[in-house]
Write a structure and sequence with these properties.
Strand order of the largest sheet: 4-2-5-6
Order of helices and strands: HHEHEHHEHEEE
Largest sheet: 4 strands, mixed
Mean pLDDT: 81
Shape: globular
Distance between the termini: 37 Å
Structural class: alpha+beta
Helix content: 25-40%
Strand content: 15-25%
Number of strands: 6
Length: about 160
């Protein structure tokens, strides 16, 4: 049984899962800072949403998996439930984090003004890849699908 004494971030993690909040504050800050690029929420997981962003932008991407650091409280909670926090970050579908892309000079200016996490960069090559242990790998298929059939459904 997980309690707040064992995991101080548990109430916050539960509330975020029950009532996800869109990143409206960050969205407004990006707009105010002059952001001119592509941006979307990750409600279907990075694995499914990155290809959508890249296709719409006409670019590829190289993502560094070591940059994806799940919140420590979330990592403990996920692990306690037998879940892999990294796989949930990649394939999960309940997160309203924003994924964005813009030209490097603009990104550097935004990064100085806002708290942004760099997880990779766009490429002229349209392929999608990720790095792990210094090796590049093809981007996996999958991600969260809101419209996937429910297992055991008789429809």
């Amino acid at each position: 049984l997980m309690t707040e004494a064992v995991l101080p971030g548990l109430p916050k993690a539960r509330e975020a899962f029950r009532r996800p909040q869109a990143e409206l504050t960050l969205s407004k800050a990006l707009r105010s800072a002059g952001f001119r690029g592509a941006c979307m929420d990750l409600s279907d997981g990075l694995v499914r949403d990155l290809p959508r962003l890249c296709l719409a932008s006409g670019v590829g991407a190289l993502i560094d998996l070591t940059a994806l650091n799940p919140d420590p409280a979330y990592a403990i909670l996920a692990s306690s439930m037998g879940e892999d926090p990294m796989l949930n970050a990649l394939f999960g579908g309940d997160d309203f984090a924003l994924l964005g892309a813009c030209p490097p000079p603009q990104y550097e200016a935004l990064r100085g003004a806002l708290s942004l996490l760099t997880v990779g960069h766009c490429t002229a090559d349209p392929s999608l890849r990720f790095t792990r242990d210094g090796q590049a790998h093809p981007w996996p298929d999958g991600g969260f699908d809101h419209f996937a059939p429910v297992l055991g459904s008789t429809q």
